[in-house]
Amino acid sequence: QLQLAESGGGQAQAGDSLRLSCVLSNRRFTNYAMGWFRQAPGKEREFVAGISWSGGSTYYSDSVKDRFTISRDNSQNTAYLQMSSLKPEDTAVYYCAAGRNHGSFHFHARAEYDHWGQGTQVTVSP
């Protein structure tokens, strides 16, 4: 059974950086597009960033574009989310997700992702 394990969350101050990691186990990593989503209290889970199986294509929400960078290391079965210039509004539980590659993969869509991690809390203080 495919498993996703996130790490790297924690407390930060506004302007700080954090890096989240997500390790995929028990399946071929390159079969999957990867995404990061987040959910703040009382809000819907929202798309943050996505990356194709090869790493050649990346996608971001407008709220994090130019501050966050998604990447992957296929030799380590790991996806990353480098978060810079953090803001209090970035406070949320962050989830990584994996979806089987196909030609018309919609990275922003939750329904595309079949597998989800347990989430890691990111809290940003002013």
- Rounded to the nearest angstrom, the radius of gyration is 13 Å
Query: How many strands, what sense, and barrel or not for the largest sheet?
Result: 7 strands, mixed
Strand percentage, roughly?
over 45%
In oligomeric terms, what are we looking at? single chain
Helix content: under 10%
- Poorly predicted tracts of residues: none
**Average pLDDT:** 96
Give the termini distance in whole angstroms: 40 Å
Kindly state the number of beta strands. 11
How many H/I helical runs? 0
Give me the strand/helix succession.
EEEEEEEEEEE
Shape: globular
Structural class: mainly beta
Summarize the structure.
The chain has about 130 residues and is mainly β.
Overview of the structural elements:
- The chain has 126 residues and is mainly beta.
- Helix content is 0%, strand content 50%.
- The chain has no helices and eleven strands.
- It has strands at 3-7, 10-13, 18-25, 32-39, 46-51, 58-60, 68-73, 78-83, 92-100, 115-116, 120-125.
- The strands form two sheets. Strands 2, 4, 5, 6, 9, 10 and 11 form a seven-stranded mixed sheet that branches.
- The radius of gyration is 13 Å and the shape is globular.
